[in-house]
Write a structure and sequence with these properties.
The protein is α+β, with helices and mostly antiparallel strands and 199 residues long. Helices cover 39% and strands 22% of the residues. It has 7 helices and 12 strands. α1 runs parallel beside α2.
Length: 199
């Protein structure tokens, strides 16, 4: 394990020894963790977990949009941090298989077919594109801006209300109880993540 106390040192160390994963504080003495994250993303796909003080919601969202995989809010328990790190590492090592099984939800990426508990689920093209994005980023927090850009294109970058409508429609089709979602979770002020409720 390698540690660094400044943004400059972090980038230098990462360049010399390509890390398997990165835990990055958003507040650094010589710069912003968001800028470090953006720079790292130009050459590495290693998971990046950002650490954020309470009340820095806009900074967390900016870091996620800059390429961070997840964030942990201070104060945090070491078990939570390690669990999020393990989840991020699993996503990186996950093979590009054509089928994603998440709890009872099955997404066949090759056939564009979805089933829940063995029953086929009919989705519109945008609903499927949204679910595909969630499924290929299982456990990862996706910001509103990232989702809108990936599914609808850059012109929808500020249409978060548009996204809420589609997430609601998707929940009605895949959640056992859409009023208490277990698969598509809302991260207030940040975005959504798809999780396996059985894990």
């Amino acid at each position: 394990m390698t540690t660094a106390t400044t943004a400059e040192q972090a980038l230098a160390e990462a360049a010399m020894r390509v890390p398997d994963a990165i835990i990055l504080d958003l507040v650094l003495p010589d710069g912003s963790g968001t800028d470090v994250c953006r720079e790292l993303r130009t050459w590495t796909a290693a998971p990046i977990i950002v650490l954020s003080a309470i009340g820095e919601e806009s900074e967390k969202v900016a870091a996620l949009d800059a390429g961070a995989d997840d964030y942990v809010t201070k104060p945090f328990g070491m078990d939570e941090l390690l669990a999020r790190l393990r989840a991020a590492m699993r996503r990186v090592s996950q093979p590009g298989e054509p089928t994603r099984q998440i709890g009872e939800l099955n997404v066949d990426l090759e056939k564009h077919a979805v089933s829940m508990a063995g029953e086929p689920v009919q989705l519109t093209p945008h609903e499927y594109a949204l679910l595909r994005l969630f499924a290929t980023n299982e456990g990862k927090l996706l910001t509103h801006a990232v989702i809108l850009r990936e599914v609808w294109g850059p012109q929808y970058g500020d249409e978060s209300h548009y996204l809420h409508v589609y997430v609601s429609q998707l929940r009605r089709k895949i959640e056992p109880d859409p009023t208490r979602p277990r698969y598509i979770l809302t991260e207030p002020g940040a975005g959504y993540r798809l999780v396996d409720p059985s894990s």
